[in-house]
Amino acid sequence: MASAAEQLAASLNLSAFSKAPELKKRIWFTLGALIVYRLGSYIPIPGIDPYVLQEIFNQTRGGLLGMFDMFSGGSLGRMTLFALNIMPYISAAIIIQLMTAVAPQLEALKKEGEAGRKKLNQYTRYLTLGLAIFQSLGIAFGLEGMRGSAGGAVIDPGIFFRITTVITLTGGTMFLMWLGEQITARGVGNGSSLIIFAGIVANLPSALTATLELGRTGALSAIFIILLLLMSVIVVTFIVFMERAQRRIIVQYPKRQVGNKMFGGESSHLPLKINVSGVIPPIFASSLLLLPLTFTSFTQSTEAHWLNEVAALLAHGQPLYMTLYVLMILFFSFFYTAVVFNPVETADNLKKYGGFVPGIRPGKNTADYFDYVLTRLTVVGALYLSAVCMLPEILISHYAVPFYFGGTSLLIVVSVTMDTVAQIHSHLLAHQYEGLIKKAKLRGRRN
What integer is the mean pLDDT of 215-231? Predict the structure, then answer.
């Protein structure tokens, strides 16, 4: 057994990769799909003056638009076919997931297995369509109200422009939803996450160039830029460590006698990640806090003085903004963790299959123990998310560092990279096991 494990570990190299044709097909399919996505992010929607739009967007880059433009890979700033990106689908999936915790009908579907999962996916697609139509209609009205120094952002406002915009943006989102599902099924990694990942990574060179340009003009010192890059490496290393960290709870299964043979008695473990909620808390918190600033920049009204004051208090680097940001990350960390992990259901499943935690009685005591451990882990995970997101937030507010060096973007890039690499390793392991089994069969026939 040990020699087989050593042989398997030694075979995970480039030669093993070259001998896995199915994995190569999956990787090429994923790369081709991402190239299609990037090409579509440069196809503009009709009826837009790009120069006026760029001028207006540069003025509102510090608000919610800047963050969502980062997720869309610059498509929102160029107002292209994929301006909404896949965010309506992500929002719909999160809403359906949250609703399963409060709606008994959806919770019953979740427990039905594959048939229930397909039904929930269908509901997610319908909700994605509704959200995309609503958001694209809002963008159409917002574009018609935008004006720059050279005139309006829309060349010919009216009902025809609104219908065209809704159809174009909604169609782009639905295509990306389908493309993401195809990547998940026929490629490697999670399709939706890889699309967001590709958008962020595609603009990293321009963000780095902009930072270096700030150093060339004297806005940032060379020492600060070096420290910024060093800090990014340290933060990435810290994220990798925390995302891989987990608490393993030992689960024991009793022995069973069937005839003259004994079965069972083995022990396993239940892994609980420190950061169960992933990147959901920072995204939700940023979206809610940046809404007033973005709405103020859209209206540009001098009458709503109270709205301008609220936007000033919630600007980057302000104490109120920082405090609310941390509190929202903490809240959404606990809330989303409670949605995705049910201690009572997990304890009941263990009891159903005869498993138990050593020293803990099955049933309610096991559920209470899981809840106790998960609460402590979530405290650490929430503090970790707050630290990762707050440090770049200070740099963004005080030193005009681009969003791409923010905590949320680094979290997404690192998490998606780790998940994709793990899937590639799984495919390689499966291929190597198949090779070892074939060799064992050939040796058995020779003997």
Answer: 79
Judge whether 172 and 84 are in contact, CB under 8 Å: yes
215 with 222: CB under 8 angstroms?
A: yes
DSSP letters along 7-65, please?
Answer: HHHHT-SHHHHHT-HHHHHHHHHHHHHHHHHHHHTT-BPTTB-HHHHHHHHHHSTTSHH
Higher pLDDT among residues 55 and 445, named by residue? 55
Residue 435: its pLDDT value, please?
61
For residue 249, the cross-strand partners are 270
End-to-end CA distance of the chain: 20
**DSSP-assigned states of every residue in 127-160:** HHHHHHHHHHHHHHHHHHH-EETTEESBSS-SHH
- DSSP conformation letters of 379-423: HHHHHHHHHHHHHHHHHHHHH---GGGSHHHHHHHHHHHHHHHHH
Q: Please check whether residue 136 is in contact with residue 164, taking contact to mean a CB–CB distance below 8 angstroms.
A: no
> Packing angle between helix 64-71 and helix 191-202, nearest 10 degrees?
110
Confidence label for 183 from pLDDT (cuts 50, 70 and 90): very high
Query: What's the angle, vertex CA 251, arms to CA 249 and CA 255, rounded to 5?
Result: 165
Distance CA 198, CA 318 (A): 31
Exposed/middle/buried for 41, CB within 10 Å: 0-12, 13-18, 19+?
A: buried
HSE, side-chain direction, 13 A CA sphere, residue 424: 18
Q: Answer yes or no: are the C-beta atoms of 218 and 224 closer than 8 Å.
A: no
Q: What is this structure's pTM? A: 0.77
Q: Answer whether 116's CB lies under 8 Å from 96's CB.
A: no
**What token pair was written down for 167?**
């159809």
Q: Tell me how far apart the alpha carbons of residues 237 and 230 are, in angstroms, rounded to a whole number.
A: 11
pLDDT digits (tens, 9 = 90+) for 264-321: 567 788 888 888 888 888 877 776 776 666 565 555 544 556 666 766 676 666 778 8
Helix, strand, or coil here: 252?
strand
